[in-house]
Amino acid sequence: MANISTLNTTVAGIDAVSSRLASGPRGRKPRRVLSRRNVMLYGTLIVAALYYLLPLYVMVVTSLKGMPEIRLGNIFSPPLEITFEPWVKAWAEACTGLNCDGLSRGFWNSVRILVPSVVVSIAVASVSGYALANWRFKGAELFFSILIVGAFIPYQVMIYPIVIVLREMGIYGTLTGLVVVHTIFGMPILTLLFRNYFASLPVELFKAARIDGAGFWQIYFRIMLPMSLPIFVVAMILQVTGIWNDFLFGVVFTRPDTYPMTVQLNNIVNSVQGVKEYNVNMAATLLTGAVPLIVYFISGRLFVRGIAAGAVKG
Description:
Layout: H1 2-22, H2 36-63, H3 67-70, H4 85-92, H5 104-134, H6 140-151, H7 159-169, H8 175-200, H9 203-211, H10 216-224, H11 229-244, H12 248-253, H13 261-269, H14 278-310
Helix pairs in contact: 2-14, 4-14, 5-8, 5-11, 5-13, 6-8, 8-11, 8-14, 11-14, 13-14
Pfam families: BPD_transp_1
GO biological process, one term: transmembrane transport
Protein name: Carbohydrate ABC transporter membrane protein 2, CUT1 family
């Protein structure tokens, strides 16, 4: 009897499966790959990518051509004979005013400006954001409001007062003065980012550490800091991009012997002496933009994660 019951159950199951197969497939209909929506979406993305990649392509192929080939006029054609002489001249031989040592001097000036500005501004802003998010001290709201206002004041209106302040301090025209300027102007927006990021972390971690007797710096270094790699990457990319690409502060607060790379690039491209060497100009432009591009490509994923995490709470 047991065998007959099992056989009946099996037959019933087979009949059920057969009826489902006979009725046809069920569920949502799969989307077509070449639907109108996909064509519009990917078409728009391809057009936008070409819009930004075409000038880069022109810069690269022009920097690899000799001047006789450039004079033929076809800027989109690949080089018939690749040469790296324009890159060598842009780095070590191009004239920027009275000096003819290329972009090499400006590169090292930019590095000497960039490293301390990024390190100091991120360190101070991270501690300030942590304090504003987790430690409610007297006057915190007023301090935060001042930072918000400072983040959106056009820095052009502050140039003349800063020149006077740096002159009185005796550091106007030096790399130290420019480091101070970049550090101060980077702190408001960085503090806002760190404050929002720390506010998005589970508050139970902070309370548990306080119950265990941890203090201000113990919580910061042992709990907050290890969880904050994405927002530190965001802050680093913002500061590296802003400081390395800055031209106005560099030309105002430094002198010819301490000009950063962007100011020297301007002097090379806009020089009116001698023959206009477009291949050298393109090579110099690519060399100047290489550092922020490399930093972004290395840490791009963490940049997106940090921006998204810092936007959870305000």
